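Retro notes (design track)

What went well: tokenization of the new backbones is finally stable.
What didn't: we kept losing track of which sequence belonged to which structure.
Fix going forward: every design gets posted as structure first, then sequence, in one message. First example under the new rule, 185 residues:
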């Protein structure tokens, strides 16, 4: 077994439209390499800075992410043994295996999968972020008492007058429905 700590540059394009690892960022890796029968088992943690924007208020945010991963990198001759014992028509097993190339292993696909899967789906600047006003787009965290006058759509203005007159008249003119026994008794 061997433990390693490395700082590597970001391979780029690690994120979603809303949040991700900047292309010029440094990723800190803490790795544990274990020799096993089939190859080398790599267990590790990747720590990387994140930049993005809050999905509620669109303010920029910065965080740090820690993603854990574990993957087996098989010896080249172990790949041949796996192919012989596996079902010849089973290509899914072959796609999911990583192999050593001499003394080297390519951690980029494993690192990319671990970091992107650990990203928050809906990043927010704070848990109770109120977001933006749907009327004018003002940030509600800056003005918690933000309100608008109830503007009536011009297409519904005539109905507003009808509703007001019905409230003034009371319920006398409203016909009763059949089967309503509560007022007949």
């Amino acid at each position: 077994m061997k433990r390693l700590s490395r700082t590597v540059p970001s391979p780029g394009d690690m994120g979603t439209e809303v949040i991700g690892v900047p292309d010029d960022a440094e990723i800190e890796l803490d790795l544990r390499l274990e020799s096993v029968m089939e190859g080398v088992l790599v267990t590790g943690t990747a720590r990387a800075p994140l930049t993005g924007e809050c999905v509620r208020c669109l303010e920029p945010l910065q965080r740090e992410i820690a993603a854990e991963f574990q993957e087996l990198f098989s010896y080249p001759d172990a790949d041949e043994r796996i192919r012989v014992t596996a079902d010849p028509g089973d290509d899914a097993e072959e796609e999911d295996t990583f192999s050593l190339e001499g003394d080297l292993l390519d951690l980029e696909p494993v690192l990319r999968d671990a970091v992107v899967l650990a990203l928050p789906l809906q990043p927010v600047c704070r848990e109770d972020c109120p977001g933006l006003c749907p009327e004018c787009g003002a940030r509600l965290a800056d003005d918690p008492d933000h309100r608008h006058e109830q503007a009536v759509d011009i297409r519904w203005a005539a109905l507003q007058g009808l509703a007001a007159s019905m409230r003034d008249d009371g319920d006398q003119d409203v016909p009763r429905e059949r089967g309503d026994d509560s007022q007949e008794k």
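Added context from the reviewer: The chain has a mean pLDDT of 82.
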